[in-house]
Design brief:
Elements: H1 3-15, H2 18-25, H3 29-43, E1 48-49, E2 56-57, H4 59-86, E3 91-97, H5 106-117, E4 121-127, H6 130-138, E5 144-146, E6 193-197, H7 204-215, E7 221-226
Parallel strand pairs: 3-4, 3-5, 6-7
Antiparallel strand pairs: 1-2
Helix pairs in contact: 1-2, 1-4
């Protein structure tokens, strides 16, 4: 039983006149009459009464018409859903992010705009560290992730693009001898103990920090590692 046959049945039920229905469908009347007979044979019921050269729906026809309209509406909606999903206009988007990504206004603003412009997209947000998000991308559990650069040797399956660029800041305790200096040379802090982010090796802000120290000519003495950064005013 094809959707085409069901659509033809609905038109005949609406017109209750085989000739007008055939004209509306742009097909020959005998072919349409034969199609309705085949549909009745397939269902094992009489859909139309043909008494006195007039077409009327039987009780079975009325019941079938109601459900057929619902089925055709669902079929049409299924086609639209598939097309919209293929165009990226609806569906579920699994987005991962490191917590510090929310400190910048760009990501929250982008999420608000996405919800406003694409209401058919359901957002699934996952917060995690760089390693967890990286593995989730490779396992296809995430569609996109906002992580800290750099990303060590990403595979060809991943497309990496810059999202936002931020300046790094140096934080010193108030009693530090260089706390009041306006501009600092990183090498002047070579003997200090450091607090560093605990990122996976070769990935994230820790690697940026290590690379900067290496350029300055020293390896930092890391006294404490932390998982995230939060500054409370």
């Amino acid at each position: 039983m094809s959707l085409r046959a069901l659509r033809h049945f609905v038109v005949v039920a609406e017109e209750l006149h085989m000739h007008r229905a055939a004209e509306r469908l742009h097909i020959a009347q005998p072919a349409l009459s034969q199609q309705i007979k085949q549909l009745e044979q397939r269902l094992g019921v009489v859909l139309f009464s043909r008494a006195n050269r007039r077409l009327t729906l039987t009780a079975a026809g009325e019941a079938f018409l109601h459900k057929t309209r619902l089925a055709l509406e669902m079929a049409d909606q299924a086609v639209l859903d598939a097309q919209r999903t293929a165009r990226g206009e609806q569906g579920r988007l699994h987005l991962g992010y490191v917590s510090s990504a929310m400190y910048d206004s760009k990501l929250p603003g982008l999420l608000r705009r996405l919800r406003a412009d694409w209401p058919g997209i359901e957002l699934s947000l996952v917060q995690g560290d760089v390693q967890m998000l990286y593995e989730a991308l490779l396992d296809l559990r995430l569609d996109i992730a906002i992580i800290r650069a750099p990303l060590a040797s990403p595979p060809d399956a991943l497309v990496v693009r810059p999202f936002v660029r931020e300046k790094l800041c140096l934080a010193l305790y108030q009693q530090h001898p260089l706390a009041g200096v306006g501009a600092l040379n990183l090498a002047s802090l070579r003997t200090d103990n450091w607090i560093s982010l605990d990122d996976p090796q070769g990935t994230g802000l820790e690697q940026v920090f290590m690379d900067a120290c290496r350029v300055a000519g020293f390896t930092p003495q890391v006294a404490q590692r932390i998982n995230d950064v939060y500054l409370d005013d």
